Amino acid sequence: MLVANSRFCSLHQDTKSRAFHLNLEHKSIPLRFCELLAVREKIFSLEIASLFYEESCPHNFKILTLCNQQHLVLLTIEEIVDLRELLLRAFVSMGLSSTQESVCI
Q: What is the biggest distance separating any 2 CA atoms in the chain, rounded to whole angstroms?
C-alpha cells in the first residue's frame, strides 16, 4: 500500500508484515517502524541551509548510513529536501503527526 510519494522517492507499507519499503531512485530499503522513525530523525536533524556552505559538502550531496549502517545512501540536497517532505506527509497520512509543516531551507 502506498503511504506517500514524491518526485524522487516513495514509501510503501506491506499490509501483511506491516513493514515499510522506502524506494529511492536507485535503491529500495526495507524498514521496520522503529527504523523508519530513525530515518525520519536523521533526515530532520540535518540542517539543510548549512549543507550549501559546509566545507564537508562541496559536491552538493550527503552520504547517509541507514538501519544501523546496513545501507549507504548518497543523496543530493534536493533529494534530502524531497525525502524530508515525503516523511512529513507519510507521518501525517498515518495519523502520527498532527500538523503538516513546510520544510524550510
A: 45
